Amino acid sequence: MSSILDKIANKDLINDEVIATDLLVTSKSAVRTYAVAITETASPEVLEVLKKQLNEAIDLHHKVASFMIENEMYHAYDMKEQIDHDLKKADLALKMPTKSD
Asked: Is residue 100 a contact partner of residue 67, using CB atoms and an 8 Å limit?
Protein backbone atom coordinates (compact mmCIF):
# COMPACT_ATOMS: atom_id res chain seq x y z
CA MET A 1 0.00 0.00 0.00
CA SER A 2 1.47 3.34 -1.01
CA SER A 3 1.34 6.44 1.16
CA ILE A 4 -0.13 9.76 0.07
CA LEU A 5 3.39 11.13 -0.39
CA ASP A 6 4.08 8.35 -2.89
CA LYS A 7 1.07 9.53 -4.91
CA ILE A 8 2.25 13.12 -5.18
CA ALA A 9 3.85 13.42 -8.59
CA ASN A 10 3.86 17.22 -8.66
CA LYS A 11 6.62 18.55 -6.39
CA ASP A 12 4.90 21.97 -6.46
CA LEU A 13 2.26 20.55 -4.11
CA ILE A 14 4.80 20.10 -1.32
CA ASN A 15 7.25 22.98 -1.41
CA ASP A 16 8.99 25.43 0.91
CA GLU A 17 5.83 27.48 1.28
CA VAL A 18 3.74 24.51 2.37
CA ILE A 19 6.39 23.47 4.88
CA ALA A 20 6.85 27.04 6.18
CA THR A 21 3.09 27.53 6.53
CA ASP A 22 2.79 24.32 8.51
CA LEU A 23 5.66 25.42 10.74
CA LEU A 24 4.06 28.87 11.22
CA VAL A 25 0.70 27.38 12.22
CA THR A 26 2.37 24.86 14.51
CA SER A 27 4.50 27.50 16.23
CA LYS A 28 1.44 29.71 16.71
CA SER A 29 -0.35 26.79 18.33
CA ALA A 30 2.64 26.18 20.60
CA VAL A 31 2.56 29.82 21.74
CA ARG A 32 -1.10 29.47 22.70
CA THR A 33 -0.53 26.15 24.44
CA TYR A 34 2.38 27.44 26.51
CA ALA A 35 0.44 30.58 27.45
CA VAL A 36 -2.47 28.49 28.72
CA ALA A 37 -0.12 26.13 30.57
CA ILE A 38 1.53 29.11 32.29
CA THR A 39 -1.83 30.25 33.65
CA GLU A 40 -2.55 26.74 34.98
CA THR A 41 0.69 25.88 36.76
CA ALA A 42 1.20 26.26 40.48
CA SER A 43 4.87 25.28 40.55
CA PRO A 44 7.43 28.10 40.32
CA GLU A 45 9.93 25.71 38.70
CA VAL A 46 7.47 24.59 36.05
CA LEU A 47 6.42 28.21 35.49
CA GLU A 48 10.01 29.19 34.68
CA VAL A 49 10.43 26.29 32.25
CA LEU A 50 7.15 27.13 30.52
CA LYS A 51 8.08 30.83 30.23
CA LYS A 52 11.37 29.87 28.60
CA GLN A 53 9.60 27.55 26.18
CA LEU A 54 6.99 30.23 25.42
CA ASN A 55 9.72 32.71 24.53
CA GLU A 56 11.40 30.15 22.29
CA ALA A 57 8.09 29.45 20.53
CA ILE A 58 7.52 33.20 20.04
CA ASP A 59 11.02 33.56 18.59
CA LEU A 60 10.44 30.65 16.20
CA HIS A 61 7.10 32.09 15.09
CA HIS A 62 8.77 35.45 14.42
CA LYS A 63 11.58 33.85 12.41
CA VAL A 64 9.20 31.79 10.29
CA ALA A 65 6.81 34.71 9.72
CA SER A 66 9.71 36.99 8.74
CA PHE A 67 11.05 34.37 6.33
CA MET A 68 7.64 33.97 4.75
CA ILE A 69 7.09 37.74 4.45
CA GLU A 70 10.53 38.26 2.91
CA ASN A 71 9.86 35.47 0.39
CA GLU A 72 6.33 36.67 -0.45
CA MET A 73 4.73 33.56 1.01
CA TYR A 74 2.82 35.52 3.66
CA HIS A 75 1.29 38.95 3.13
CA ALA A 76 0.71 40.04 6.70
CA TYR A 77 0.36 43.73 5.81
CA ASP A 78 -1.87 43.44 2.75
CA MET A 79 -5.16 41.67 3.43
CA LYS A 80 -6.35 41.68 -0.19
CA GLU A 81 -3.05 40.22 -1.39
CA GLN A 82 -3.18 37.56 1.35
CA ILE A 83 -6.76 36.60 0.45
CA ASP A 84 -5.83 36.27 -3.24
CA HIS A 85 -2.80 34.20 -2.26
CA ASP A 86 -4.90 31.97 0.01
CA LEU A 87 -7.50 31.39 -2.72
CA LYS A 88 -4.78 30.24 -5.14
CA LYS A 89 -3.42 27.89 -2.50
CA ALA A 90 -6.91 26.54 -1.77
CA ASP A 91 -7.36 25.74 -5.46
CA LEU A 92 -4.02 23.94 -5.43
CA ALA A 93 -5.00 21.99 -2.30
CA LEU A 94 -8.15 20.78 -4.02
CA LYS A 95 -5.96 19.24 -6.71
CA MET A 96 -3.97 17.18 -4.20
CA PRO A 97 -4.54 13.44 -4.18
CA THR A 98 -6.76 12.03 -1.48
CA LYS A 99 -6.44 8.80 0.44
CA SER A 100 -8.91 7.12 -1.91
CA ASP A 101 -6.99 8.15 -5.07
From this structure: no
Tens digit of each residue's pLDDT (9 = 90 or more) over 35-84: 999 999 999 999 999 999 999 999 999 999 999 999 999 988 899 998 99
CA distance 45 to 35: 16
Least confident of 5-9, 44-48, 95-99: 5-9
Phi, psi of 95 (to 5 degrees): -85, -10
Q: Are 96 and 8 in contact (CB under 8 A)?
A: yes
**54 torsion bin: left (phi>0), alpha (psi -120 to 50), beta (else):** alpha
- 55 to each of 7, 21, 34, 61, how far by Cα in Å? 38, 20, 9, 10
